[in-house]
Amino acid sequence: MISSSFGGNSKVGKSLLWDLEQRFIRANVEKIPIVIHSYHLTYMTMVWSLGVVLFSFFATINIQWLWGVSLCIFLQWLTDSFDGAVGRLRKEGLIKWGYYMDHFLDYIFLCSILIGYSLILPDNFKYLLFFILVIFGAFMVNSYLSFAATNEFRIAYFGVGPTEIRLLFIVINTLIILFGKTYLVWSLPYVLSLSIIGLGVVVVRTGKYLREIDMEEKKKREHKTQKLFHKTLNKSYRLDT
Fold first, then answer.
1. Of the chain's two ends, which shows fewer C-beta atoms within 10 Å, N or C?
2. DSSP secondary structure of the chain
3. CATH number attached to the domain at 18-240
4. pTM
């Protein structure tokens, strides 16, 4: 039986752009046409993912097509930001489905971006994208495992969340368009190195937090056991006297 107390529909921690993003969503969520439901917006990530791969392929012929990739990244942020807000406003009730499908498709979208970059990168640098996918995937796995242990869902670390990551990709695309592929090749080792360091810190901090929870629960159990023991002992003493 699944517990009715589900924390996947709320997030712990804030990214740098969180407050600005939430103000934008609250100001515009009621403008979404009534015929568009939250699940429509969630499924749109598949369309944007295909668009990223398609425009990246075109970018192998003309690098200006990367503007199309950046547009898809922006549109995915837009639909991804509003799907949950629309669902809550209209009380559609797709809480667990939204948690599952939304974050699964987020992973698909990340893969589409890295697949797109693999099309335009020189062959001897494509291996970096594999390691970036591994590290970014590890951040996601950490979030899901931590959520399973705490019922607290965290997707932002050190002020960096999905919105900031999307913005980073748009900046990289812009640099590639304006100055050539050298900027992608130059940036990837730094992105990978910082991601590895960040992941290490996150895992250590998460492990420490979970250990503190375990120790607190252990103390509560021991206190409860001692209290039960003294209660039983006092009851036995009264019966003997």
1. N
2. ---S---TTSB-S--TTHHHHHHHHHHHGGGS-TT--HHHHHHHHHHHHHHHHHHHHHHTT-GGGHHHHHHHHHHHHHHHHHHHHHHHHHT---HHHHHHHHHHHHHHHHHHHHHHHHHHS-GGGTHHHHHHHHHHHHHHHHHHHHHHHHS-B---BTTB-HHHHHHHHHHHHHHHHHH-THHHHHHHHHHHHHHHHHHHHHHHHHHHHHHHHHHHHHHHHHHHHHHHHHHHHHHHHHHH-
3. 1.20.120.1760
4. 0.82
